[in-house]
Amino acid sequence: MKYCRKNRMLHVLSILLLGATLTGCEKEVEQKNDSLHVYASGSDVIMDYAVKEFQRRYPDIPVEYAGRKIIEDAEEFYGYNQQLSAQLMSGSGADVFFIQDYWDIDKLIQAGAFADLNEIYESSEVFRDTDFRNDILDAGVFDGKRYFLPMEYRIPMMISTREILDDVKFDFESCTDFDRFMEESNRYLNSTDYDRRLFRMDVSAKNCIFWAGYPIIDKDKVVWDIEETRDYFTWYKDIYKRGTGEYMFGDLFGAAAVRDGECLFESSGFLETDLNAIRALYTIGNPVAIPIYNKNGGVTALVDRAVAVRANSENLDNVRKFLEILFEKKIMEQPGALREDISVRKSIMEDVYESYQVEQPFKIAVNGFPFELPPLKKEDFDAYLACADKVDKTVYWPAWRSEFQTEISRFLRDEVSYEEAAKCAKEQLEFYLSE
Fold this sequence. Notes:
D-Maltodextrin-Binding Protein, domain 2, 2 domains, 19 helices, disordered N terminus
């Protein structure tokens, strides 16, 4: 029941945000630049550094910043964020904020909730730094307007060992696009060598609808070709029926499942989890990190942390000054500033490598691995990040994915045919666009 209440709360939040935005952003806002209001959630450590530096450089500009509020109770957390986020779009909220992953980004962009940051981006020296991954930064551009600036992203990687893959004759080097990956994994799943699940968790296969790059919605139109995804959902259904491990992340759960013969690949999607899994698997063999390529043979990146600005902010010059500080290297490289994934600054990742030389990352022995883990090899770290150079598509989690997957799951459970499930899923998408 708690999960249902949360979803209802977030749906109400979206209505509040959209309503406030539609009534508040129809005319140009008079600029005052007499203050700055910054909002951060509990994990946004980088905001602490940026606010402190802003106050040092511009002591005459009042800054409203309550700090990072850490709330353990889920109901209280979402209630607090509902209140703050509704204020955000009403004209009295924060000027600068991190986009929350439960917001409906597509609808908020359509409603004009976010300011166009093109002028700030193009006029600021900090963004001309060649250290940035501009292809990732451009993920916030829609119809020529820049609605948010990504700070971190992740790529879909699979972790295993060469010895395990050789034992089951899994030819991972042939998986150069998503179709080839499905072919090779289907061959494995239906061979006499099959002795473990493909993934630790079936959610890894579910998310491949995005990693593969199948077009579903383009702006305000459903472009999903259900025949194009028939093979994918048949493949996913086979994986679904073979069962799943618990949805547990971190703490070497994936590495232990690979070691113990439960799955062929760990694919949680988090950089820190993947790299620590590689370290743990040094104890049993030679680890490999393999990207899940998309249909075109490139890699799809998920933007999971981005900063945006309220469209009716009266302090855009102050916002510019703050964003220039926020994206400076000396701020982005501070301890804890990088949350858990890959930074849009390439040099930040060079510094990150040192953190994987610590012999006791968990302070205790975890999931049957020794207390002291081997340090991460530089060649393995570089090989992992080299996969980011293959990114040719960026996405963020769309708000419609839950209802879409709910309809498709009826096919996975053999309740309806693929045609019927796809028809209902498409109707859900059409309804979403009509709201």
